Amino acid sequence: MEISYDLERFLNLALSLIHPSLYDLGLSMLRKIRQEEDTKEISQQWQSVYTGIAVISNRRSPSHRDTKGRPEWFDTLISYSDSRSRPRLLIEDLGMDLDYSSGTVVSFCGSVLKHEVRSWGVGDRVCYAHFMRDSVRSRLKMPPAGWVNRSMYQGGFPMDLC
Fold it and tell me: How many domains does the chain have?
């Protein structure tokens, strides 16, 4: 499965709505990377404001917290599976057991909330995990995005989605 340009634009838009300052940080980092000589050419192909995407295929994800982001940042998970698969996303710290069937998109603070996918039954499944790495932000010498708060929504929404 290929992550498409349209899907990345959709996820960028979703992040701009649910965590505007994280979206702004991601877009600023992407623009900065696109100006650096050693990353200019290859970075033109990267359409996501997230600094990383992990592909998890046909394997369980043990209970964990992600350690390389920041507590106030959201990760976004996208699940794809065939019709025989019945994955469940467990967010232990909230006592949530969610249907994680194909097409599900979930954003949450992965470094704060312990989460896992124990099994998915039969068939194939893929998860695309989008995340921000604090080490990238630090290398680019940019201030971190803070927590989501109500005041972020008072000025409207961005339309520049890279």
Answer: 1
